[in-house]
Amino acid sequence: MRGMADFDTSWSIRVYYEDTDAGGVVFYANYLKFFERARTEWLRSLGIEQLELARNTGMIFIVRATAVDYLSPARLDDLLTIKSRIERIGGASVDFEQEAWREAPDGHGELLARGSIKIGCVAAHTLRPGKIPAQVRLVMQSAAKSVNATSGEPARGAAA
Question: Which InterPro entries does UniProt cross-reference here (predicted)?
Fold first, then answer.
């Protein structure tokens, strides 16, 4: 397992009433929403706008597989940090590892959920797989700490 510094990006979100179930606990599916928002904001910070990508290249990103382990519940008003890293970049896909942490006043956090999310690149009109546009792939590779920029595979010495 890698340390916290190995994540490519982190993004914070407050838990609102709408995110919780009747018991005041974050509804399990909302972690997928939090993960999606974190990936989208990371891409935005790299200058990759999803609508622009679709308009300029005809390609979009879709989620093709998820697996999430829920370790501890988040509750109303918690401040969460979603940490994301690219595990692998293929020709038409990107595999992310994401974690949701509850921030604590002492600066330490508690890991709440961990997910593996597989993203595919597809043609917007046909939804058939297609290559990640070269410039987008290059930007993602250069921003990813854990991916070998030449091959798109996990960096040497990095746990897979």
Answer: 4-hydroxybenzoyl-CoA_TE (IPR050563), HotDog_dom_sf (IPR029069), Thioestr_dom (IPR006683), Tol-Pal_acyl-CoA_thioesterase (IPR014166), YbgC/YbaW (IPR006684)
